[in-house]
Amino acid sequence: MLDTILSELITLTVEVGKIIMSHRKNSGNFIMKSDNTPVTQADKESNELIINTLKKLTPNTPILSEESSNIPFSSRKSWDEYWLIDPLDGTRDFIDGSPDFCISIALIRNHYPDFGLIYSPFHKVHYYRLPSQSSIKLVGNKPHKISTKKPNRWEKIVVGRYSNNNKPLKNHLRSKTNFETFKLGSALKFCLIAEGVYDCYPKFGRCSEWDTAAGVYILEGAGGTVLDLNNKPLTYNFREDNLSPAFKAVGYQENLKDRSTAATSFVTEPIEI
């Protein structure tokens, strides 16, 4: 199913990206939601187009979005397959004029991602992974397989632009040597680890499941892993609050407790985003 609608999903995200970019001049107009996160008109319009299109493409598949996340757990806990989307991931970056925002779409099956698509409207670059395949970076109409790399002497650690001052992260960084940090917004962090630009993304602050799902699947398809602090993979739709636990995303293999298979690295032709 996914391979047959992939081109339509790519067309969709391009159109959503145009909507987002059309609001950049007015990005400072926003309101705060009950969870103390901002929402803009770009978020709302993007959400509407994505949901309406997914309903046409897959009418029998439920949809959970950041901007329509009030579906009670009692209703969604029985879902064995659903779309999980963030129509504008990195809203704070968007508001502040940074290019580090993206559109994130994942398909969850049996509490784990089975498809991931991330689009950077500013850079006009797609990252995606179909079930059981390697991850792809799409620049224009040219697809390129991507792969992670193991750190050499210096580890390049990427952290969130607005979540890098929390105490657990500072303690984690103090325990390391021979590294440098970079600040980047949104799920693009997963993508840039997937193509070998960065090595590691430790996340100890607040993070929702729609922030991680597509990125997790793409990173795994390029040779990386994402594990919580108990060395277990993240899971989805087990909680009322839709929050992901603290985790570490890395571009090299680590032992998994509960998943018997891990992604295989692939040869890549590197392209700068």
CATH topology of the largest domain: Fructose-1,6-Bisphosphatase, Chain A, domain 1
Q: What count of domains describes the coordinates?
A: 2
State the distance separating the first and last CA atoms.
29 Å
Radius of gyration: 17 Å
**CATH homolog superfamily of the largest domain:** Fructose-1,6-Bisphosphatase, subunit A, domain 1
Strand tally: 14
Quick check: average pLDDT? 90
- pLDDT < 50 stretches: 258-273
Question: Strand-and-helix sequence, N→C?
Answer: HEEHEHEHEEEEEEHEHEHEE
Q: In terms of structural class, how would the helical and strand content be classed?
A: alpha+beta
Shape: globular
Strand order of the largest sheet: 3-4-5-6-7-8-9
Q: Assign the CATH architecture of the largest domain.
A: 2-Layer Sandwich
What does this structure look like?
Helix 1 (2-22) runs antiparallel to helix 2 and helix 6 runs parallel beside helix 7. With 273 residues, this protein is an alpha+beta fold. The chain has helices spanning 2-22, 41-57, 73-76, 91-95, 167-174, 188-194, 209-220; strands spanning 30-32, 38-40, 63-65, 81-89, 102-109, 112-120, 125-129, 136-139, 142-145, 155-159, 179-183, 200-203, 225-228, 247-250. It has two domains: 2-145, Fructose-1,6-Bisphosphatase, Chain A, domain 1, CATH 3.30.540.10; 155-250, D-Maltodextrin-Binding Protein, domain 2, CATH 3.40.190.80. The protein has a seven-stranded mixed sheet, sandwiched between helices. It has a three-stranded antiparallel sheet with strand order 12-14-13, with helices on one face. The longest helix has 21 residues, at 2-22.
